[in-house]
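Blinded run. Sample ID left blank on purpose so nobody reads anything into the name before looking at the predicted structure. Input follows.
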Amino acid sequence: MDTAIWILSKIIWALVKLDNLLLFSLVLGSLFLFTGRKSLGRKLVTISSVIILVLTVFPLNSLILLPLENRFPIPEPLPKSLDGIIVLSGAENLRITHARSQPAIRDSAERLTTFVGLSRRYPNAKLVFTGGAGSLSNQEFKSVGTAQMLFEQLGLVADRVQFEFDSRTTFENGQNSYKLMRPKKGEKWVLITSARHMPRAVGVFRKVGWQVIPYPVDYSTTGDIKYAMGLYGFNSVSGTSKALHEWAGIVAYWLMGRTSELLPGPN
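Blinded prediction complete.
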């Protein structure tokens, strides 16, 4: 059942994600301009162009992300001792790593670098990397391979890390990590993931009975509401699409009962 839901969610999001919808609308509208449906074609092209213009001039993606990224503060100072540290996959570029035989990291590399940094601050803490392959294709390429290569380059002995490599979703990250480590009540575990993703991740871990200390990283906003007009390019369109994806994921997880609450916050 989980596999069917995962496949369906991937297909649906590929069809409805904002940047793809705008592309489809522009292409379809352009085709209509050369047929007997010119009026509909002009409407589609105009609406799509206006949306793209607004998104490239005003950083609306920051406005959408801000409530998520500000939801949990950075927990510094941390406790003097920790029982464990968990990091969610997602920073790894699996195809390039496989092709080039060296770790390729996306723009959320802070997940892994913070994990390595905290592993040095807490040499006795248990370490968990959780995540397999979240793509429908290339399931043979696992995030764990990229992570192992990077950890070794940064001086973290891979043997110290417990690798959970079957998860494809945040929900499976929480479930599988809990089964792997069986944390005891009262233990102090830090959870590392991107700030925009932290509310959903914390909700999942709380749902499985794991009270973690959220450590958000990989911020896309400055944390305040100062918006200036500019030319932000198509990166702003892509950023808005990613922000909407995270909100959609939060709502979907709540409807499916996979999170402890709709929008988890600090205890």
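Unblinding after everyone has recorded impressions. The domain at 73-217 is CATH 3.40.50.620 (Rossmann fold).
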